[in-house]
Amino acid sequence: MKVCGKCHSVEQAASLRQSRTGWEETVAKMVGMGAEGSDDEYEAILTYLTKNFGPEVAKPVNVNKATPVEIESVLGLTRAESAAIVQYRTDKGAFKTLDDLKSVPGLDYAKVEKKKALVVF
Questions:
Q1: Are 85 and 73 in contact (CB under 8 A)?
Q2: Rounded Cα distance, 1 and 9, in Å
Q3: Domain assignment of residue 21, given as a range
Q4: Number of separate domains in the chain
Q5: Is 39 helix (H, G, I), strand (E, B) or coil?
Q6: Is the pLDDT of residue 6 over 90?
Q7: pTM over 0.70
Q8: pLDDT over 90 percentage in the chain
Q9: What is the CATH number of the domain that holds 67?
Q10: Closest CA to 82 of 100, 98, 106
């Protein structure tokens, strides 16, 4: 919390499920964005995240009901792409098919296509 909680909620970090390598990349990205901590703190963070939020089989995400964080974490989208999905469904109504997601401005549909087995309506 001391290092990570300054910029985002615990729920956001906990929604990710990554290997140690994935967590190392995420922590390096956060350091690049200004997170401050000691080497010992970063090692403790990596150990904790890997142990408690390591990879698991992802559960499908309902793109008509999920929060942007849930969509982001399950489908591997950016925060902006996930927010665009939620905004589009708010403005235009529920998605009925995978192809409906092609109409979302700013969404890299290829990412969704790769994880289509995890998308439900």
A1: no
A2: 9
A3: 10-52
A4: 2
A5: helix
A6: no
A7: no
A8: 55
A9: 1.10.150
A10: 106
